[in-house]
Amino acid sequence: MATVTARATRAVDASPDRVLAFLSDYRESRPRILTDNFSAYRVESGGHGQGTVIGYHFAAGGRERDYRLSVEADAGGLLERDQLSSYVSHWTVAPDASGSQVTLEASWQGAGGIGGVFERTFAPLGLRRIFGEMLDKLAAAVSA
What is the SS3 assignment for 72? Predict the structure, then answer.
């Protein structure tokens, strides 16, 4: 099994502190940037940053699955680890001349064989598009 990685980055016209505060708010702010691929989004515990646990159903590319993510804060970002699989997403917020550079990267242990070849080829493309939409919504929300 090989690691599969998807990544998208956007410049955001807001300070890193403002962006991180928005991303850390899993109750009010975070649902505003989710795409139609997400359903049944819920905060199971916490709600702000470190220690929060969220769940949702995700559907894309003919595949569907449930996630239950535990949130960890790290320097300049948030790490979200799925309790049901090897999936990990990492939000990184770095200072930029016009505000912030925000990156959303996800990785997981992919399937083996021919299915794994297709997964490594196509899953990152689809997720990059979805992540790009989320980052666009984030930019609009924190710049408003």
Answer: strand
Half-sphere exposure of 51 (CA within 13 A, CB side): 4
Contact 72, 82 (CB under 8 A): no
pTM to 2 decimal places: 0.90
For tokens 């470190």, the residue is: 50
Integer Cα distance of 139 and 136 in angstroms: 5
Q: Tell me if 144 sits within 8 A of 22, measured CB to CB.
A: no
What is the rounded CA–CA span in Å between residue 114 and residue 129? 23
Q: In 3D, which of 102, 122, 94, 100 has the Cα closest to residue 6? A: 122
- The CA distance from 4 to 124, in Å, is 7
Q: Is 138:10 a contact under the CB 8 Å cutoff?
A: yes
- Tell the residue number behind the tokens 């928005």, with chain if given: 22
Chain segment 7-48, per-residue pLDDT in tens: 999 999 999 999 999 999 999 999 999 999 999 999 999 999
Phi-psi sector, 62: left (phi>0), alpha (psi -120 to 50), beta: left
